[in-house]
Amino acid sequence: MQFMLLLNEPEAEFAKRNDPEQATAYWGGWNAFIGAMAQAGVIVKGDGLQGPHTATTVRVRDGKRMVQDGPFADTKEQLGGYFVIEVPDLDTALEWAARSPSASCATVEVRPVLPPMAPPVS
Amino acid sequence: MYSARDTAEWVARAAYGRLIAILSARSRDIAAAEDALAEAFAAALRSWNDHGVPTNPEAWLLTAARNVMKNQLRHRGIAEAAIPDLLASQESMAEDGPQFPDERLKLLFACAHPAIDAGIRTPLMLQTILGLDAARIGSAFLVAPTTMGQRLARAKAKIRDSGLRFELPSQHDMPQRLSEVLDAIYAAFGIGWDAAAGIEAGGRGLTEEAIYLGRLLAALMPDEPEVKGLLALMLYCDARRDARRDERGAFISLDRQDARLWKRDLIIEAESLLTAASRHARFGRFQCEAAIQSVHVQRPITGRTNHEALLTLYRMLVQHHPSIGAKTGLSAVLIEAGQEGEALGLLDTIAPDEARTYQPYWVTRGKALHALGAFEQGDQAIETAIGLTQEEPVRIFLGTLISSRAI
């Protein structure tokens, strides 16, 4: 069963990425987590994301496209990356989520991936 | 000779949770299992009337419900259409029937999974294991039946879709997960207990349902002392149920109860459970609370309440499980022992937000203040307690504690 881990981070964590004094520890934490998942062979796909300051949101209303600078909601925690993992059940997915750096400094949302749609009946 | 209806109802009560647990174990779809079982029961009523009750009614129902689920067609008549098949296969269901596993423990753990909202865990257990309907559960929880139905449906959808597996927790997770199951069962008991104390009929009977769940869990997990502790605690309390009221319905506090009205068989069962639990030599909150009850039931034997033993047990409870209930309990015993100052100090460590609506806190606070000679403040605390009490007999009892009203 596939689950997506939506890994959130607070602003302070994003800032560590480019802080020469903290970057090594920051990326070390993530590499250890990703390495453990890779070794267990559970990763289906996944990426880190550029910080929320790079986000652009778009919505279409009455046929008009509205583009805005910034993430869709201004909250203390922002999406920093995601992984889709293949594990037997929710408990195992929660185990992996709890091991991510995000779990200690922010939150991780865990959601089952929708199973593939049945082909349309002709 | 029992009628088909009697047999169906009897099987329904005894086997409901067993069948739901088996039917939903793989699909995790509790709602579909409930629908299928309801259809199987309807088919059984018709078939058993015409063809007689099968030798193994539970296996009959399981097969009928499985047929409903297999066809995944929810309209009526599917189970009925399977009757010829079932009649044919009755032969193969031997005298004692095929043995199927008891999956209820996994279902209990699924209902109390941390991914399920804590407020709906008890209702889920009552519905899936005991077959209580949303209206009955709603009235016990003082929630409209439709609202309770919606909450239950939402929780079942979460269980079905979230990838939560019907498995026992790992050894590492067991203590925490088990305590969540025990909390959910004890919550049902608490609601039943409060309702039994008053005129509110909604929750009445939930104490029996909670004890049933406790017995079930004790049978399924014989090596967990805390399960025995919880069951013992519930039995001790239930044993005193009739002694809580005089003939006019007035409330009688524990220390003034007529011990002859306590149910001896329940107390004996509780004592032996507690003894068996203590052999595991693993401290636990429920064993400690049961031990406190055990001290109280010694009163008629020894002629006095052993306050020293109560103090020791409550201090242990507060140390391991510093809940508002435990702290309030310890304070009450401290007052009895003449240590009102320490009692008040302990009550002051409870966060005001937590204490605001907790009635026993205000009763105990009032008593402590009275004992310290602060009558006006004490009366105010008792008045607050009366305002938080729903049951009239208890309100009247608390009124007698107001010093300005004392005769």
How does this model look, in words?
The complex is a heterodimer of chains A (122) and B (407). Chain A has 122 residues and is of the alpha+beta class. Chain A has a single domain (2-112), classed as Dimeric alpha+beta barrel (Alpha-Beta Plaits). Chain A is built from 4 helices and 6 strands. Chain A has helices spanning 11-16, 23-40, 90-99, 101-105, and strands at residues 2-10, 43-48, 56-61, 64-69, 77-86, 108-112. Chain A has a 4-stranded antiparallel beta sheet. The longest helix of chain A has 18 residues, at 23-40. Chain A is flat and about 60 Å long. The model of chain A has no long low-confidence stretch (mean pLDDT 94). With 407 residues, chain B is an all-alpha fold. Among the domains of chain B are: 4-89, no CATH class; 306-407, Serine Threonine Protein Phosphatase 5, Tetratricopeptide repeat (Alpha Horseshoe), CATH 1.25.40.10. Helix content of chain B is 68%, strand content 0%. Chain B has helices at residues 4-25, 30-51, 57-71, 78-81, 83-89, 104-111, 118-130, 134-140, 145-161, 174-197, 206-220, 225-239, 264-278, 285-297, 299-302, 307-320, 324-336, 340-348, 352-355, 359-371, 375-387, 392-399. The longest helix of chain B is centred in the middle third of the chain and has 24 residues, at 174-197. Chain B is elongated and about 80 Å long. Chain A binds chain B through residues 1, 3, 88-91, 93-94, 112, and chain B through 115, 161-165, 167, 169, 173.
Structure classification of chain B: mainly alpha
pLDDT below 50 for ≥5 consecutive residues: which ranges of chain B? 94-98
Shape, per Cα inertia axes of chain A: flat
What is the CATH topology descriptor of chain A?
Answer: Alpha-Beta Plaits
Order of helices and strands of chain A: EHHEEEEHHE
Task: Kindly provide the name of the CATH class of chain A.
Answer: Alpha Beta
In DSSP terms, counting alpha (H) and pi (I) runs of 4 or more, how many helices of chain B? 22
Quick one: CATH superfamily of one domain in chain B? Answer: Tetratricopeptide repeat domain
Tally of alpha and pi helices of chain A: 4
Largest interface: A-B, 9 and 9 residues
Helix content of chain A: 25-40%
Strand % of chain B is under 5%
Oligomer type: heterodimer
Residue share in β-strands of chain A = 25-35%
What is the CA-CA span between the terminal residues of chain B?
63 Å
The CATH superfamily of chain A is Dimeric alpha+beta barrel
